[in-house]
Amino acid sequence: MRKNSIKNTRINGEVQRELSNIIRELKDPRIGIMTTVTAVEVAPDLKTCKAYISVLGDEQAKTDTMAGLKSAAGFIRRELARTVNLRNTPEIRFIMDESIEYGMKMSKLIDDMKKDQPSDTE
Prior knowledge:
By secondary structure, this protein is of the alpha+beta class. Helices cover 51% and strands 18% of the residues. It has helices spanning 6-25, 59-71, 73-83, 99-116; strands at residues 35-42, 48-55, 91-96. Strands 1-2-3 form a three-stranded mixed beta sheet, with helices on both faces. Helix 1 (6-25) crosses helix 3. The longest helix has 20 residues, at 6-25.
């Protein structure tokens, strides 16, 4: 199975959907309410998985959420095995995704620049 095959794309989508549901149901107080699974990359051999996580909040909330997810990785993997029927259940590695925050920051900078420039219609 190639990395960009249709089968791998479907598996990535299914694992992302189930990870989102599992993380939403976790009762760990360290995991923030606004935690989102932005992308998932399952290896073609189904042994490993990179889950990109976005957290809305300050740096402390991000570090607490990552610590909570890493400590619950075994439980999350077991729940994933129960809900998704795969030959192998991948070992999950959580990676902080800063792209949404970066995009919001760039959008704000562009809006600020537009406000500062005089309009051409005057």
